[in-house]
Design the sequence.
C-alpha cells in the first residue's frame, strides 16, 4: 500500500466519496452528468512514432484560430527560440499543441574495428585507406583545412566518431492533459472552466474574467493568460468538433498516428499493448506517462508514451493536484482565524480600561 | 538502438547540455543567516527541457496582489479589534479600527479587481460558490466584509446611525479573521512549489502578519491611553509572524531556498528587521505618541514586506524548474523506498 498524503491523511484516494483525489471511474457522472452521457474521450500520444512535423500544431492553430506567438508566448511576434528546432517553446494561451524536440547523445560500448582508424598508432595492424599511399597525403591536406581533431576521431566507415557516440532525436507533441482531477477546474472562481460531457476540461470564454488562478494551479503549466485579451485559453480537445462527431484537429492531421484519439478505455488498452511491444523489442526506456489512475491527478485524459524521463520533455515527474491538500489548508485557515480572534480578545481583556 | 542498455535512462543525455543540471552549493551568507539553521541541499541533480519552467508562473501582478494580501490582513484584524473595543467601551480605538478596516477593505477590493484580466467582469466571481476555489471562498468573505467594514467606516465619518454602525462593525468582525487568513490558502493552493509546501503554515503566517499590521496601524491612530489592546495584539502578531516565517523559510528543504535568495530574500530580511524593530519599539515606547506612530509604521511596513517577499519567493520558485522537479523526484524516491520496505516486511 502506498501512503499518498502526509498532509491530508483523511484523503487516502481510496474513499469513493472523496472527489478531490484518487481514481474516478466516472468523471462526467461525478461532474453532474446523468447516466447515458458519452464515453470519456482522450488522446494517446505515442512519441515513439512522432516525427516532429508539427502538423498537429498547425492544424490546432488553424482550426481554433489561435494567434501567432513566439517561444515565450509573446503574442504576434515571430522569433526563433535559438535552442533547437522547437520554436514553439511551450504550451500557452496561443499554443495548445507543442512539439518538444530534444537531441540526445550517448556513448555506446559496441565492438569497434581496432585497426586502420586515422590517428591510430597501430598502423601496421591492417589496411587503412586513410593513411596508406596517396590517400595519406590527401588526409593530411584535409586535416590542414578542417578540424584535425574532429577528422581523426570520425570513422567514415561506421559513421561514428572516435568516442563511440550515438545520436537520437526525441519528439513529443505535448497538450493539455484533461486531468481526472483538474487543478484549473477546481480553483476557477467563476465557473468558466467546466467538465464537458466527454470528460474533457474546457474554458468558457464568455465567462472567464481573467483572475488567473488556474495558471499557477495547473501542475503541468498548460493554461495561460493571453496578452491583450486578459482571459485564459487552453486546449479544448476541439469541443466543437467532438459535438459534431469529428476527431480533434491535431489527431486528424497527425500523419504517423502518434496522436491517437478515442475512448479513453480503448486508448489505455492500446497504449498498454504498444508499451509491451516496445519493451519486447528492447526499448527499455519506454514508459507510459499519465496512464496510471492512482497518480496525483487521478490519471490523465491525454496521456503519453515517452522514451525518457518526463522532465526531459518538460513534464513534471510526479504531479499532484494542489487541491488534494486543500482540506488541510482550510483547516489551518480556520484555526488561524480563531487564533486572531483569541489574540485580539485577550489583548482587549488583558488591557486596563481607560479612565 | 537501445538494445543491451541496462541503465534506466539508457545513458542518453541532451546533446548540447550536461546530463543533468548540477547545482553548486549556493548559500547566501546573509548577515542574519549566521545561526546555521538553513537546511542545506547540496549538489542537486535534475533534468529539464532547456531550463524552461515546468509550471507557469502566476500572472498575478505586483504590487496589486501583495498589497491586496497586506490590506486585507490589516483590515481583517483591525475589524476584530474594533468590534471588541466597541463592546468594551473604547470609542477612540473602535473609531480608528473601523476606519482602518473600512479603508483597507475598499482598497483591497480595488486592487483585487484591478488585477483581473477582465476587470469589467468582476461580478462573474459571484456566479458560483466553490469551496475548492480559495478565490471563490475569498470573494464571499471579502464581499460581506467590504460592505460591512466600508459601511461602518462611512457611518463613522458621517456620524450617522450609531446603532447600524455598531452592527456593521460586528458583522465585519465575523468575516475579519477569515479574510486575514484565507489569503494564505489562496497562495498555497497552487502548484507553485514554495507556496504549496508550507500550505498549513501560510495561513498562520498571514494571520500573524495581519495582527502586526492591524495592531500597528490602529496604535498609530489611537490615543496611547486607549491603544493598549492594539499594542498587545501587534506584539503578539509580530511574534507569531516571526516564528512562522522562520519555519516557512527553513522547514521545507530545497523549496525554502527562494525565501533566502535574490529579491525575495532581501525583502524578507527587511521585513524581519522592520517587524523586530517595530515590536521592540512598541514595548519600549509604545506609550508615547511618537513611539506609537514610529512602531506602527515599522510593523505595517514589516507586514507589507513579508507579503511582498513571500509573493516574490513563490514567483521565483515557479520560474525555476529545479523547484518543481527535485521535490517530486525526492517524493518518488521516498515512495519507492517505502514500498520496498513494505514488501520486505511482508516477505
Sequence:
Amino acid at each position: 500500500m502506498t501512503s499518498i498524503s502526509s498532509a491530508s491523511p483523511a484523503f487516502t484516494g481510496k474513499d469513493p466519496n472523496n472527489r478531490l483525489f484518487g481514481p474516478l471511474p466516472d468523471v462526467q457522472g461525478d461532474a453532474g452528468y446523468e447516466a447515458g452521457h458519452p464515453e470519456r474521450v482522450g488522446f494517446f500520444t505515442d512519441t515513439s512514432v512522432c516525427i516532429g512535423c508539427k502538423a498537429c500544431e498547425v492544424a490546432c492553430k488553424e482550426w481554433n484560430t489561435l494567434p501567432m506567438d513566439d517561444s515565450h508566448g509573446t503574442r504576434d511576434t515571430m522569433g526563433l527560440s535559438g535552442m533547437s528546432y522547437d520554436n514553439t517553446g511551450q504550451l500557452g494561451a496561443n499554443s495548445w499543441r507543442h512539439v518538444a524536440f530534444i537531441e540526445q547523445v550517448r556513448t555506446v560500448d559496441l565492438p569497434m574495428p581496432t585497426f586502420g582508424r586515422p590517428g591510430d598508432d597501430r598502423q601496421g595492424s591492417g589496411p587503412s585507406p586513410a593513411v596508406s599511399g596517396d590517400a595519406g597525403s590527401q588526409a593530411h591536406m584535409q586535416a590542414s583545412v578542417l578540424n584535425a581533431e574532429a577528422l581523426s576521431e570520425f570513422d567514415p566507415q561506421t559513421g561514428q566518431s572516435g568516442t563511440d557516440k550515438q545520436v537520437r532525436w526525441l519528439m513529443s507533441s505535448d497538450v493539455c492533459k484533461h486531468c481526472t482531477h483538474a487543478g484549473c477546474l477546481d480553483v476557477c472562481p467563476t465557473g468558466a472552466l467546466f467538465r464537458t460531457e466527454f470528460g474533457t476540461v474546457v474554458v468558457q470564454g464568455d465567462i472567464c474574467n481573467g483572475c488567473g488562478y488556474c495558471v499557477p494551479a495547473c501542475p503541468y503549466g498548460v493554461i495561460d493568460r493571453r496578452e491583450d485579451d486578459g482571459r485564459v485559453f487552453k486546449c479544448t480537445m476541439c469541443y466543437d468538433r467532438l459535438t459534431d462527431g469529428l476527431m480533434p484537429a491535431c489527431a486528424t492531421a497527425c500523419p504517423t498516428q502518434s496522436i491517437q484519439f478515442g475512448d479513453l478505455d480503448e486508448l489505455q488498452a492500446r497504449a498498454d499493448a504498444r508499451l509491451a511491444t516496445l519493451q519486447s523489442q528492447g526499448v527499455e526506456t519506454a514508459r507510459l506517462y499519465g496512464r496510471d489512475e492512482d497518480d496525483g491527478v487521478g490519471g490523465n485524459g491525454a496521456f503519453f508514451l515517452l522514451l525518457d524521463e518526463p522532465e526531459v520533455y518538460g513534464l513534471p515527474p510526479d504531479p499532484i493536484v494542489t487541491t488534494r491538500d486543500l482540506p488541510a489548508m482550510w483547516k489551518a485557515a480556520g484555526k488561524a482565524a480563531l487564533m486572531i480572534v483569541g489574540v485580539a480578545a485577550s489583548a482587549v481583556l488583558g488591557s486596563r480600561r481607560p479612565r | 538502438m537501445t538494445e543491451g542498455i541496462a541503465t534506466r535512462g539508457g545513458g542518453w543525455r541532451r546533446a548540447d547540455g550536461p546530463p543533468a543540471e548540477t547545482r553548486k552549493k549556493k548559500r547566501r551568507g546573509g548577515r542574519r543567516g549566521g545561526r546555521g539553521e538553513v537546511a542545506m541541499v547540496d549538489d542537486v541533480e535534475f533534468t529539464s527541457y532547456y531550463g524552461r519552467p515546468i509550471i507557469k508562473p502566476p500572472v498575478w501582478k505586483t504590487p496589486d496582489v501583495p498589497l491586496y494580501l497586506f490590506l486585507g490582513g490589516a483590515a481583517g484584524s483591525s475589524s476584530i479589534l474594533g468590534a471588541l473595543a466597541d463592546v468594551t467601551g473604547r470609542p477612540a480605538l473602535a473609531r480608528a479600527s473601523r476606519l482602518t478596516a473600512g479603508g483597507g477593505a475598499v482598497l483591497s477590493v480595488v486592487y483585487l479587481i484591478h488585477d483581473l484580466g477582465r476587470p469589467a467582469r468582476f461580478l462573474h466571481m459571484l456566479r458560483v460558490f466553490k469551496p475548492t476555489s480559495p478565490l471563490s471562498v475569498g470573494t464571499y468573505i471579502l464581499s460581506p466584509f467590504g460592505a460591512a467594514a466600508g459601511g461602518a467606516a462611512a457611518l463613522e465619518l458621517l456620524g450617522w446611525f450609531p446603532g447600524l454602525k455598531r452592527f456593521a462593525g460586528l458583522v465585519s468582525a465575523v468575516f475579519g479573521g477569515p479574510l486575514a487568513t484565507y489569503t494564505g490558502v489562496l497562495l498555497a493552493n497552487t502548484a507553485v512549489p514554495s507556496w504549496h509546501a508550507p500550505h498549513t503554515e501560510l495561513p498562520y503566517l498571514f494571520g500573524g502578519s495581519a495582527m502586526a499590521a492591524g495592531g500597528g496601524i490602529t496604535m498609530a491612530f489611537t490615543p496611547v491611553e486607549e491603544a493598549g489592546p492594539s499594542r498587545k495584539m501587534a506584539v503578539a502578531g509580530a511574534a507569531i509572524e516571526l516564528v512562522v516565517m522562520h519555519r516557512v523559510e527553513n522547514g521545507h528543504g530545497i523549496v525554502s531556498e527562494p525565501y533566502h535568495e535574490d529579491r525575495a530574500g532581501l525583502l524578507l530580511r527587511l521585513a524581519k528587521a522592520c517587524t523586530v524593530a517595530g515590536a521592540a519599539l512598541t514595548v519600549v515606547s509604545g506609550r508615547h505618541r511618537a513611539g506609537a506612530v514610529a512602531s506602527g509604521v515599522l510593523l505595517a511596513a514589516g507586514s507589507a514586506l513579508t507579503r511582498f517577499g513571500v509573493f516574490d519567493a513563490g514567483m521565483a520558485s515557479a520560474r525555476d524548474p529545479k523547484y518543481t522537479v527535485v521535490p517530486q523526484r525526492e517524493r518518488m524516491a521516498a515512495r519507492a523506498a517505502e514500498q520496498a520496505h513494505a514488501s520486505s516486511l511482508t516477505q
Summary: The beta strands of chain B are 13-14, 21-22, 45-46.
